[in-house]
Amino acid sequence: MTADLSLIRSSFAAVQPHGSQVTAYFYDHLFANHPDVRPLFAAHLDEQRDRLWAALGALVANLENTDTLIGMLQNLGRRHAGYGVLAEHYPAVGASLIATLRHYAGDAWTPAVEESWAAVYGVISSTMVAAGDVVSG
User: Fold this and answer.
1) % residues pLDDT > 70 (the chain)
2) Transmembrane stretches, by residue range (predicted)?
3) 62: which of 7, 72, 75, 133 lies 20 to 30 Å off by Cα?
4) pTM of the prediction?
5) Is the domain 5-136 a CATH 1.10.490.10 member?
């Protein structure tokens, strides 16, 4: 499975106008489908939603800047490990991210877009898990 970066950018552009609704939907989906991860988050998610939105934007903006992207993901992975996030939490987050993007992308969402996001999320999660393993190892 490979990622078409132009599809990542165009689908994210379709989602961007929805702003804070995107991250609210993401957390609602995540907690409804995986309530076991709720204790890993603060009671009030406003700041967390903003950080997630900023991280997604930075991810998409740096898709072709590998050094910056990997450094950013490793930093996120180390921080998440410090919050108690485990490797087994990442699939739930990925499923909620894909569901959220699909929901807001509308007609911009296709099977090829979903495949590209799944591939990108695979790199995101594996990079973050590896960095987190160094912290918790």
Assistant:
1) 97
2) none
3) 133
4) 0.93
5) yes
